[in-house]
Automatic annotation (TrEMBL):
Name by which UniProt lists this protein: 3-hydroxypropionyl-coenzyme A dehydratase
Pfam families in the cross-refs: ECH_1
Signal peptide: none
Family membership: Belongs to the enoyl-CoA hydratase/isomerase family.
């Protein structure tokens, strides 16, 4: 869990474990207009845990207050962007602090809180998709201002085939992110195999040949 923290002189000094926030350039001692916010569990393909989500929300709350920052680039370290929840920890890893029935009843979808933090942030978010994307890693791109993807990036949504509802406010954001002609198929035709990231945003196709975004 992340204790309450104040806007720092440099974001690289923040005590985050599962995300990295860095300035451009990295050795800058103060916050820059562009910040790079990266999932930082490369050995797990940036699968998310409760701590990662908590840190991500905290980072966005700080950035929203910081007049020095003008734009956020959201990406992943290592070979993947984000492959969704960490299946090794399961729901217990996402609900670790939920001890009582009362607290469970008060629980809010952490992914939804992240989506709202991105959408409500006064600083635009550019998602730089550097590798494989799945589940939360995909739906969290919806509230971003724009997306840039490696040409060979693949996306998978296995939970839509397993009967799980789309999370992270995506049922609301999805129709506002793709065209009306596209989004009915977009929700229902994913199988467990990964497919190319594009052409889902035909009006917003920013594709690059290198995964080093």
């Amino acid at each position: 869990m992340v204790a309450t923290i104040e806007v720092p002189a440099s974001y690289s000094s923040l005590p985050f474990k599962d995300i990295i926030v860095s300035e451009v350039a990295e050795d800058t001692p103060v916050a820059t207009k562009v910040l790079i916010l990266a999932f930082n569990r490369p050995d797990k393909h940036n699968a998310v845990t409760e701590n990662l989500l908590t840190e991500l929300e905290a980072a966005y709350r700080l950035i929203d207050q910081d007049e020095r920052v003008r734009v956020v680039v959201l990406t992943g370290t290592g070979r993947a962007f984000c492959v969704g929840g960490d299946l090794q920890t399961g729901f217990s890893g996402l609900l670790a602090h939920q001890a009582s029935r009362e607290s469970i009843d008060r629980y809010r979808d952490q992914g939804g809180k992240i989506a709202l933090a991105i959408a409500s942030c006064t600083k635009p978010t550019v998602v730089a998709i550097n590798g494989p994307v799945a589940n939360f890693g995909f739906t969290i791109t919806f509230p971003a201002t724009t997306r840039v993807a490696w040409a060979r990036a693949k996306v998978a949504q296995p939970f839509s085939r397993l009967g799980f509802s789309l999370e992270s406010c995506s049922a609301y954001v999805l129709p506002r992110s793709v065209t009306k002609k596209q989004h009915p198929d977009f929700r229902g035709t994913f199988d467990r195999k990964a497919v190319p990231f594009w052409p889902w945003w035909d009006a917003d196709k920013n594709e690059v040949s290198s995964s080093k975004l």
